[in-house]
Amino acid sequence: MTDLKGKTAVITGSTSGIGLGFAQGLAQEGVNIVMNGFGDADEIEANRKALEGHDIKAVYDGADMTRPDQIGALIGKAKATFGTIDILVNNAGIQKVSPIEDFPDDKWDAIIAINLSSAFHTIKHTVPIMKDQGHGRIINLASVHGLVASPFKSAYVAAKHGIIGLTKTVALEVAEFSITCNAICPGYVATPLVAGQIADTAKARGMTEQQVQNDVMLKAQPTKKFITYDNLNGLIVYLCSDAGSGANGASFTVDGGWVAQ
Predict the structure, then answer these.
(1) Which residues are catalytic?
(2) Of 33, 108, 104, which Cα lies nearest the Cα of 66?
(3) Whether 159 contacts 115, CB under 8 Å
(4) Mean pLDDT of 91-107
(5) Which of 110, 221, 255, 259 is the most buried (most CB within 10 A)?
(6) pTM above 0.70, yes or no
(7) Cα(18)–Cα(191) distance, rounded to whole angstroms?
C-alpha cells in the first residue's frame, strides 16, 4: 500500500476500458472513487460494487462530458460527498476514423468536446478545491497521438495534441500550490474504443480487421503487443503518490517503443 489510502479520485470515462482500469488500480491503493461515464446501468453498478470490495467508497455520476454545467455539477458532487478531491483523472474519450474530406462535422465537434474541452472544464472547477487543500494531482489521458499523428484521425489527433498543451499550461499555473498536472500517452490498449477503431480503420483503408490489428496498430509498437491496464496503473499510482511530486507538465509514453522510432 502506498501513501494514497483515504484519498479521493474523480475519473471521467471510468465505466469501461482504461478509465475503469485506472479506477481499479487506485481502489487497490485505498483511494475512494467517483466513477463517470455511459453504459449499461447494471454493469456500472456491478463495477461500482466491485471497487468497494477494496474497502473504499465508490460513487457514480453520469455527467455528460459535452455539457459544462453537468461537469461542474460532477465536481461539486464529488467535493460534497468526500470533502476533498485529491486526484482528477481526465480519461473520457471517443473516436472516429475517417478521411478528412468525409469526416462528419458533428463527430469533429463531439470528439473535441469530450476528448479536450471536458478536461478544461473539470480542471477549471477542481483547481480551486486543490488550491484550498494545498495539494492535488491532475492526470490527463493523452495518447501517443498527442505526440505523433496517424491518418484518418484528424479530430482525435487534434484533441490529444491539445491535451498535451493544456497539461503543460496547467502545470505551470499550479506548480507553486503543491499540485501537479501530467499526461499519460499510451500506445494501443485492447479496449472497447480500440475495437471500434479496428472496424472503422478496416473500412477506411479497405483492409480486414486482422490486417488492421497486425499491420497498422501493432506495427507501430515494436513490442508487437497491446499495452495492458497494469502497464498504465503502475504509472498513475506513481504520479498520484508523494514519490511523484517532482513530475509536473510531463508527458509519459507507455507505448512499447512507438515514439522511439
Answers:
(1) 156
(2) 108
(3) yes
(4) 96
(5) 255
(6) yes
(7) 7
